[in-house]
Amino acid sequence: xxxxxxxxxxxxxxxxxxxxxxxxRHPAELHMVVFLRSPEDNQWHSIMTVTRAWLRxxxxxxxxxxxxxxxxxxxxxPRSVIEDKINEQLSNGGWRxxxxxxxxxxxxxxxxxxxxx
Length: 117
Description:
3 helices, 33% helix, alpha+beta, five-stranded mixed sheet
């Protein structure tokens, strides 16, 4: 999985590329987890990331049975638009809000391989 570095912070999608592609094909149905590394303490953190379409769909359901964690909300659109928005939000200090609400991960994120499925 490719990593992206903004001016201040490194981040990446949490799943295999197939999962990212599935999310991009069904953005109103699926969410993605983004891992980011804090430049202050060099710890990895994660945040649930959703599109505006996902948020609208779930907010309009007649029953809201879940309490959502902190969400990183990105615009509907192609991958390049989503990645640009993540870069913008994280590089403008948004990562500070995320790490205040999430426990750091122990070590580098590990992604499941085919042998884990």
